[in-house]
Amino acid sequence: MPQIELEHVYKVFGRHADEALKLLQQGVGRDEVQEKTGAVGAVIDASFGVEQGEIFVVMGLSGSGKSTVVRTINRLFEPTAGTVRIDGENITQMDPKELRRVRAEKISMVFQHFALFPHRTVLENAAWGLEVQKVESDEQRRRAEESLDLVGLGGWGDSYPGQLSGGMQQRVGLARALATNADILLMDEAFSALDPLIRREMQDQLVDLQESLHKTIVFITHDLNEAMRLGDRIAMMKDGQIVQIGTGEQILSDPANDYVASFVSDVDRARFLTAEAVMEEPIAVVLKREGPAAAMREMRQRQVSGLFILGPGRRLIGATLDDEVIEAVRRGDVSLDNITHTEIPAVAPETPLAELFMPSAKSILPLPVVKDGRLLGVIPRVTLLAAVARTGTASRDLKEIQIPSEKPGAEGRDPDGEGSDPDVEGPGQEDNGDAREAEIPHA
Amino acid sequence: MPELYRIPLGEWVDRLVDWLTANLTGFFDIVSDVLAWSVSHLEDLLLLPPALVLTTLLALFAWWIRGRGFAVFTFLAFALIESMNLWERSMSTLSLVLVASSIAVAVGLPVGIAAARNETVSTTVRPVLDFMQTMPAFVYLIPAIFFFGIGQVPGVVSTLVFSMPPAVRLTELGIRQVDEEVVEAGEAFGATPRQILTKVQIPLALPTIMAGVNQVIMLALSMVVIAGIVGAGGLGGAVFIAITRLNVGLGFEGGLAVVILAIFLDRVTSALSDRATLYKHT
User: Fold this and answer.
1) In this complex, which of B184, B192, B203 lies closest to A76 when CB atoms are compared?
2) Same domain, B237 and B97
3) What is the ipTM of this complex?
4) Pairing mode, if any, of strands A216-221 and A184-188?
5) At B59, is the pLDDT very low, low, confident or very high (cuts 50, 70, 90)?
6) Which of A126, A209, A241, B202 lies in disulfide reach of A175, CB 3.0 to 4.6 Å?
């Protein structure tokens, strides 16, 4: 028996909901119903079951009804029609008191914008579910501290949410949800408001936690990467209806209809992943104020031949290479200014994987991923290739890989470029940039 | 041209007031006694220490709640009141304002909470509040005299009626403004409506509620002159006497004392309101 079971659940917002419901149940389209009655069918005939220990992802664009459907599971939104069962208990018919018991003991929730209580400490936030149940206060404290430890926030209990970064705040949200020991975890776009790298970290942490905790998780997202990464099964929603339920692989390889197909079409394997989905933590970096000696030490420690130079606020200023750094140290330079290459290729976080090959091939260093001038992450070529190898059928991806190597082949090499100056390529210099291909082994 | 039927609204109100006076005398007497008792005892209490002692105490309180500048102001301003020979009148006005505001807040808060949680209450209460705030005060002063006679009590009642709306409005607003998702987070873990109200909504609405309390006190002070007309005495009485005798100097002194009380009460309540917001910066 599935732990969570939805049967023909409808949620209609607005006046004349009953009338609208009848029409929707007769199969009249959502837009037509809205025109006739003014009521909006946010969830239309949703049925699915979630097994114990499963991560079930509900995926859809904004307005598709995914956040509404998850709220019918704990009745934050009253379903207009249909039944919701938790462990076989029909919660749609429960009186308020019983419902509160189920919410307190069986279902907890993590919210998109964290929804922490700003006037309570981190510990008091984590203890909320226990306080509501009137658990004894020592016990509250102990269990809240335990769950803060679990999410890596041990020792932060006396801080206030406003003092924490976004990622840490959402960990408090997660700790609050774990503290009650509820078996079911509803996560409404839980990581959507976080920076890409933090989001990845949180996804990894969730997967780790899940390995030991075996919760039943309903995870709402609009991000296909996240859905694929986390979901044992994925439900695709569109205009209030669930259009397909299946594993990530099933949805990619056998889309149920044109909508799903178009949604995942860009996937074209190499395309559904974006730069931010594969990028890694930049480790080979030096701060602008540090100078050549520090840069040299950093390179030796990391065993790399190039470094990114960062300004205040992780602003990407440029890059420098090993031979120049050594030269600068010998000259006794105190700043990196003389050996900073500012014209380096960079990509935006939302760039599809397929468009990364060209700049990656031309870049001596790993490809920097930059947003508003800030360095978010880097993509070493090996990461890029590995990501492509992971994602799908070889034949299709090989074509993508061939793009960069075709172009230099067709145009030939520029002998001038092979001189002693291994200048890093600027995006605007594609024409004479081919020679730099020769420098690739450097990196 | 056919003449439009004249609705005898005024007559109805007359009859209603007559009926109320005739049948609810006992109730009005009790209300009157309680109000008169509270105001006069508070007044006695304020007049118990010598003026300069209370002034010093108020200045120390001002220091604690806001800082040195405000303390200096408080000391000088209250000393000025004493030197204008308006101390007793000022304390009388202060106690009237404090009693009226306390009752206004005590009634306004629960009504505001109810309005925030229930659409019907909200839509019913709104026109009543409009009525209370905009109906010229003299109009309900007349029945107030019928019910409670001359003196401080009709002053308290009319001040109460006029100053209550911001307590209701800003409480409702403050609670409605609490982030929907935060309230959902409360509910999702099985909190009762009462737990959500006392542990989430009210603490988060507190700065707005305190702004409402501040407004209540300010409006109450603005009513003292009108209260003076019905014999409530105090600074309003002084100003009223000045008006009837066309005595500019006396009127100015009375007015200035009202302003001093207003500034003092405003700064104190807004300092309290700031304290309620403090957690955001910690």
Assistant:
1) B184
2) yes
3) 0.78
4) parallel
5) very high
6) A126
